[in-house]
Amino acid sequence: MSYLGYLIGLLSLLWAILPLFKKDSTWISLIMDMDELEDRKTRVYGNIADLEFDFAMGRLSESDFNPIRQSFLQEAGRVMQQLEDQKSDALIDQIEQDVKDLGKKKKSKKHKCPECGKSNLPDARFCMKCGKELS
Amino acid sequence: MADLGNILLFFLFPVSVFTALAALAAGITKRRGLLEAARRGAYAAFGVTTLAVLALEYLLVTSDFSIEYVASNTNYALPMFYKIVALWAGHNGSLLLWTWIVTIFIAIVAYQNRRKNNDLMPYVLLMMAVTMVFFSVLSIFISNPFDTLYQDMGNQLQEFAVPDGRGLNPLLQHPAMVIHPPVLFIGYVGSVVPFAFAIAALITGKLGAGWIHTTRRWALTTWGFLAAGIVLGGKWAYVELGWGGYWAWDPVENASLLPWLTATAYLHSVMIQERKGMLKVWNMTLVIATYLLSIFGTFLTRSGIVSSVHAFSNSGLGPAFSVFLILSTLFSIALLLYRRKDLKPDEELQSLVSRESGFLFNNLLFLLATIAVLWGTLFPVISEIFTGDQITVGPPWFNNIMIPIGLALLLLTGVGPLLAWRHTSVETLKRSFGWPILGSFILVLVLIGFGIRDGWSLGSFAISFFVMWTIVVEFVKGARIRGRNSGENFLKAVYMLSRKNTRRYGGYIIHAAMVVMFIGFTGNAFNSETRAEVDEGDFFELGPYKFTATSIQHAQNENYSSEYLELEMTRNGKFVAQLKPEKRYYFASEQPSTEVDIYSTLREDIYAVLSGMSNDGERVIVQVYRNPFVRMVWIGTFLLVFGTLFAMLPNLRETKSASPSNGGIV
Amino acid sequence: MKNKMKFVIGSVVIVLAVIVLAVQGLQEDATMSYSKSVSEVQLLGNRAKSLSLKVNGQLKKGSIIRNNLDLDFIITEGESELQIHYIGKDPIPDTFNNEMDAEVVVSGRLADNGVFNAERIQAKCASKYEADYSSAAN
Fold first, then answer.
1. Of the candidates B60, B244, B28, B39, which has an alpha carbon nearest to the alpha carbon of residue B146?
2. What's the CATH code, domain B1-171?
3. Which residues of B touch A4 (CB under 8 A)?
4. What is the mean pLDDT of chain B?
5. CB–CB of B392 and C94 under 8 A?
6. Best exposed site among B208, B416, B659, C9 by fewest CB in 10 Å?
7. Contact check, Cβ <8 Å, B428/A60
8. pLDDT at C28
């Protein structure tokens, strides 16, 4: 009986350790600012929803409701604008990176067809000339 | 089987340590493989612990009395059901249950987040794994449930088995006791998840609302389980301990209340952070405090530092717990200080009469309640340090503080939700509160007319009425507005309205539940009791009721023998109920046990206890309590659990907007 | 800033109110009791009579005398003994009877005649329950 215990215990430990020996990669952290902006966006939206609800339930006078709503809408606009800016910045960065990678890959990786010797684009799956499947 | 269980449980230690190390390494290097390894460690910990629990269950069910735990907590004649639940009847077994729940939760968290929160997860797993390491050390090395019985044979120890076990403590042979510990433990352990995410956010500096969103359901579940666990403990004390009450400010009861108080404060204050970006440090503090108080509660129950009817014997865990508690506290405080600059509020408080200010006062009151209960619970320890005398403060001290705080909080329950964010004008206040306040005043006058003079009770009834009114108005008004726009009938509108914002309306349901419970608590002010020594045919009275002892009986089965009294309860000569208070004697444990009988209605409980025999054995001493509104406490709890579940439902999304103007919101 | 001040003032009032409640509660005699063992009570001498006490000791076997609704018994600690008279209303705990070895905590006051008037009796059973098996087995 106790052998079974050792067996199960060791196997489960081994199973947990296994991923350490696999080919590994790292993940990239999300950009801080983006998170913060997303937070602000949900917050403003939540605020507007609450404000309209409170108004409908008669907890706010019209004279309070309108200016507050306006200020929330403006804030929402600002946040959306910043988010867009961030996104396009991130997009530009991404494109720059891709272009760089493209250049690198072209140089480093000779994507030659093993059959006919024709050099292909880095992400091509089949040879342009003879149609042989590329690895 | 004991060997198997023991070895499997032993493997929890290396697996937990590995998980912690892999998680830490994953956090530093951001390598996927390490994170995957930590995740698998979590699953493996769950696997081995589950098998160990099954092994212990096997030993309990098959009555292997060579195991100390089995011999101490079960016997052959014990019904199968109680053999199974004896897993958490004793100290060692219930500690294993605690540990098991930790492993279940870490496995769930690992699985839920297998494709998201990559930045937080390493530290989340790290914090949970550290908790797991701590409890595995306790379970394996200090309080191992697989320990065998040893006999001293000259100069060597020899294993032996006893012919029959001691049986389960009769006090624990009750359905409420069966579900109380697991429910409470889930509540306690659940606090580790928001804690782990909060700490992970502090370590990584990702202090946005991400960790709050991820842990919202966890925090709510924990809170609901804690509440249900606390009340179940009270229910158990009420029906099993036979002193006619359900709460006595006992240290162990207090210990379970403490994390509930901070968790409640958190559930409210987190809404300010979501809407206003304020109170970031404070929310972190509450989450951390809830976790530490949960550990502290477990510590209090098991260390023997304060004496209590609920406590386990001094189990030698005190020092280990103290060290763990102190280290976790220092670590958390250091992290908070390190990140204090990043936790600045985004906005400032704008008006005293606003929703956010209502939440702030709510939090202040919860904080004070927590400090008061903690202070009172630890007063014997504190006073011994400073005066050398161990001084206990009794229930009157707690009531003196907690009744005003409780009523103030109840009042806020009614006021807070009706205040608008940012600012509420006096005009709208008058509109919202005019009628309910007038209604409460009339109620107070009526109650005074009925002869109720106790100020606190009048206040409590008035506030309860006021709060209930405002909550009902919330539903009715909301449904009317919705109905106008969508054309739905009233009931459909109520349903749709609540389903579209489950968090808000679940919250209202929970508030209503608290009102119902407070009515039950207030009933305590009107308790009455009587005691009589009776022979067959004798009678006595309590309030409008007349009790006649019809017969004194004896019965026996293989588990226990019993004496019981048949008591006929009449009102104005009309039969109301037959009560059967009983005294049992359990053979295996050689313990007597009092079984109370309760005639329960919405209005009041009639609670009969057979408290003993006269010296000559001819007559019996019977005690009858008349406790108004006790049932409200249990009903309120059901409502509270329902509200909690409701708040966890995802919001219903309508495919097309019910109305173009504001139908999407109301 | 003005609003912040208002909130701070409100909070201070609440905090002070709670502190007042806590301190006032402590001065009320009935809420505080001193935990002592039987021998410590005897060491206290006359001071013992002025305090509300929680005394713990071992129930002396066979010392329980019931007379109608009255209940008298003796608790011991080593050589010291204390005569207890139960004046409380609640039913006494299950573990409390002449056959059992029970550890008892009584709450009440010491009367002038040296008898302890107990308002509450707690018998420690659930906890003791588990402890003595291992000691028997050791």
1. B60
2. 1.20.120
3. 4
4. 87
5. no
6. C9
7. yes
8. 67
- Joined together, the tokens standing for residue A94 give 């991404």
pTM of the complete model: 0.87
Q: How far is C79 from chain B (nearest CA, A)?
A: 22
Interface with C, mutate which of B177, B279, B389 (most C CBs under 10 A): B389
| Complex ipTM value | 0.82
State both tokens at C123: 């018998």
Q: What is the rounded average pLDDT of the residues A106-133? A: 68
Interface contact A26, partner B, CB < 8 A = yes
pLDDT of residue C69: 67
Minimal C-alpha gap between B5 and chain A (Å): 7
Q: Nearest CA to B594 among B545, B560, B550, B568? A: B560
Asked if A touches C (at least 3 Cβ pairs < 8 angstroms), the answer reads no
* B654 in reach of chain A (CB within 8 A): no
Tokens describing residue A127: 């040879």
pLDDT tens across B285-323, in order? 999 999 999 999 888 877 666 665 555 555 567 788 888
Q: How far apart are CA B378 and CA B371, in angstroms?
A: 10
> Which of the other chains make 3 or more beta carbon contacts under 8 angstroms with chain C?
B
Cα B129 to Cα C35: distance, rounded to the nearest angstrom = 40
CB B243 to CB C91 under 8 A?
yes
Closest CA to B637 of B260, B231, B263: B231
Does A20 contact B33 at a Cβ distance shorter than 8 Å?
yes
Is-contact B128 B102, C-beta < 8 A? yes
The contacts found for B300-308 with CB under 8 angstroms, 24 or more apart, are B300/B251, B300/B252, B300/B255, B300/B377, B301/B252, B301/B255, B302/B91, B302/B95, B304/C127, B305/B381, B306/B251, B306/B377, B306/B378, B306/B380, B306/B381, B307/B251, B307/C56, B307/C105, B307/C124, B308/B250, B308/B251, B308/B252
pLDDT classification of C7: cutoffs 50, 70, 90: confident
Report which listed range, B138-142, B275-279, B461-465, is most confident.
B461-465
Nearest CA in chain A to B424: A60
- Among B31, B118, B421, the residue with its CB nearest the CB of A50 is B421
Please answer yes or no on whether B72 and C133 come within 8 Å at the CB atom: yes
Residue B487 structure tokens: 């054309």
Q: Which residues of B touch C8 (CB under 8 A)?
A: none
Q: How far is CA A50 from the centre of its chain?
A: 30
Domain boundaries along the sequence of chain B: 1-171, 174-385, 399-523+636-648, 526-631
Q: Where are the domains of chain A?
A: 31-107
DSSP result, B469-524: HHHHHHHHHHHHHHHHHH---HHHHHHHHHHHTHHHHHHHHHHHHHHHHHHHHHGG
> Looking at B156-170, B268-282, B300-314, C107-121, which range is the least confident one?
B300-314
- Beta bridge pairs of residue B567: B549, B579
Contacts of B310 in chain C (CB under 8 A): 126
Average pLDDT over residues B159-183: 82
Residue B665 has pLDDT above 50, yes or no: no
Over C34-82, what HEC string results?
EEEEHHHHHHHHHHHHHCCEEEEEEECCCCCEEECCEEEEEEEECCEEE
